[in-house]
Amino acid sequence: MRLAVVEDDPALGEALADGLRQLGHVVDWWPDGQKADAVLNDTTYDAMVLDLGLPKTDGMTWLRLWRQRGLSLPVLILTARDAVEQRIEGLDAGADDYLLKPIATAELSARLRAMLRRTTGRAQAQWVHGALSYDPASRQVHWQGVAIDLTGRETALLEVLLKHPQKVLSKSQLQEQLYDWSGGEPESNALEVHIHHLRRKIDPSIVRTIRGVGYALGSGQPTGVDP
């Protein structure tokens, strides 16, 4: 998942971003709503973790503003405010979930996965596409029942394709989901290398090339052809 974290505490924000990256997510961390607002129109995220106690303009105000603008991004509120009334206010303002500090990064990741399942209509925790199965919790991939050893970036690429099984994604759209702002520009052929590795490790059919447009998830059916 590509995640936006909006948290003004530098130590907590960095810890959340690093912890979520270690779990395989691509994360952009912003210390206030204004900085996050500046990139939301140009960058596609799977979910947002939003602190309420932000400087200048609080998180609840930003959430209402974004929902009024039509932003459908799933939002998990992360806050130290534990009053039931405040939780209700946050949910009514457009939050999809609510988590009190202090938190465990693994639980935060699990709640984000649950939010994604709800928004994508996937009731099952495991995603199945033909002979391929993927567990987003463990990030384990199986092809015809056999475990496949993928790198973190290869797994992230496969997850993006699985989330959009009917869609052709351009190179820039895929790169946006694989690289966060902290890592700088990826090498020009990095995406093609990851796609080559997926085809070699899983099956040549797993990724389709749409010439002049981009890439799409393949049929999920074994070809019987060596990569």
Could you spell the SSE succession in H and E letters?
EHEHEHEHEHEEEEHHHEE
Count of distinct structural domains? 2
- CATH C-level class of the largest domain: Alpha Beta
Fraction in helix: 25-40%
- Under the CATH scheme, which architecture of the largest domain would be assigned? 3-Layer(aba) Sandwich
Using only CA atoms, what is the Rg?
18 Å
Quote the distance from N terminus to C terminus: 27 Å
The CATH homologous superfamily name of the largest domain equals: Response regulator
Calculate the mean pLDDT score and round it. 87
Q: Helix/strand-derived class?
A: alpha/beta
- The largest sheet has its strands arranged as 2-1-3-4-5
| Overall outline | elongated
Q: Please give the largest β-sheet.
A: 5 strands, parallel
Count of helical segments? 8
Main attributes?
227 residues; alpha/beta; Rossmann fold; five-stranded parallel sheet; four-stranded antiparallel sheet; 11 strands; 20% strand
Gist of the model:
Helices cover 39% and strands 20% of the residues.
Structure description:
The protein has helices spanning 10-22, 33-40, 59-68, 84-92, 105-120, 152-163, 171-178, 190-201, and strands spanning 2-6, 26-30, 47-51, 75-79, 97-100, 127-129, 132-135, 140-143, 146-148, 207-210, 214-217. α6 (152-163) packs across α8. The protein folds into two domains: 2-120, Response regulator (Rossmann fold); 127-217, Winged helix-like DNA-binding domain superfamily/Winged helix DNA-binding domain (Arc Repressor Mutant, subunit A, Orthogonal Bundle), CATH 1.10.10.10. The model has no long low-confidence stretch (mean pLDDT 87). The chain has a five-stranded parallel sheet, sandwiched between helices. The chain has a four-stranded antiparallel sheet with strand order 6-7-8-9, covered by helices on one side. The protein has a two-stranded antiparallel ribbon with strand order 10-11. By secondary structure, the protein is α/β, with parallel strands linked by helices. The chain is elongated, with a radius of gyration of 18 Å.
